[in-house]
Specification:
The chain is 37% helix and 26% strand. It has 225 residues and is an alpha+beta fold. Strands 3, 4, 7, 8 and 9 form a 5-stranded antiparallel sheet that branches. Strands 1-2-6-5 form a 4-stranded antiparallel sheet. Strand 7 and strand 8 form a beta hairpin. The radius of gyration is 42 Å and the shape is globular. About 20% of the residues have low confidence.
Length: 225
């Protein structure tokens, strides 16, 4: 009877030790597995991502510091500031300067006219120089005119356009302006269309001047005209 009781006690204790050992071993494995994953598994992906982001940020910062991004921005700003304000016909009257030669209808001016890359590709050029005393010249209302004869100095522009520097006088059939008169000068493009027909664009870009006087700040071209 006592032997059976002792056997039961020994068996119970054995089961307790076995169960405790198994639990301890299982817990230890889970902790070990968790640690392994933390060091080499999923958490490692987070660490790698964080490291990559840090390196990328550092590289970006370095690029900005060394002028990579800033330099690109400055280049873009500079390019934008150099853009020519061509009118809808593809022209820009950059300046109209009195040369000091002649008076009245014989006054000689230098006209600096810019042609857009599109006009140059089409083979078009300056058509006419127009003048209106105390007003804006149109095809139906003008006081002076001169048709471009391709005798001027022409200069290629970086954007593919062209600058024409033409020194000439303007013909006023009904009376030339007097010294100091307000005169508006305009230009228009002209050339052959796809069918070979001669075509003219509208009078667009204009400059206001005081006749026979050097160009002033007020006489400089309005980019919106």
């Amino acid at each position: 009877m006592k032997k059976d009781f002792l056997k039961k006690i020994v068996l119970s204790l054995s089961l307790v030790f076995v169960f405790s050992g198994t639990l301890l071993f299982t817990t230890g494995c889970e902790e070990w597995d968790r640690c392994a994953k933390s060091c080499n598994g999923n958490d490692n992906d987070s660490t790698t991502a964080a490291t990559t982001e840090a390196v990328t940020t550092a590289a970006t910062t370095e690029a900005v510091t060394e002028g990579g991004v800033v330099e690109d921005t400055e280049a873009t700003t500079e390019a934008a500031s150099d853009e020519v304000a061509y009118d809808e016909n593809g022209m820009f009257l950059e300046s109209v300067e009195y040369t000091g030669e002649g008076t009245g209808g014989d006054a000689v001016y230098e006209f600096n006219v810019l042609l857009s890359p599109e006009l140059v590709k089409k083979g078009w050029s300056l058509g006419d120089v127009w003048a209106k005393i105390k007003g804006t010249p149109t095809f139906d209302d003008w006081d002076g005119i001169n048709t471009y004869d391709n005798s001027a100095e022409e200069e290629d522009l970086p954007d593919g356009g062209k600058r024409i520097k033409w020194r000439t006088s303007i013909y006023f059939p009904n009376g030339a302006p007097q010294e100091g008169d307000e005169v508006t000068i305009g230009v228009n493009p002209a050339g052959q269309d796809e069918n070979g027909n001669w075509t003219e664009g509208e009078i667009g870009s204009t400059v206001d001047i005081s006749w026979e006087k050097p160009e002033t700040e007020e006489a400089k071209p309005d980019p919106e005209k």
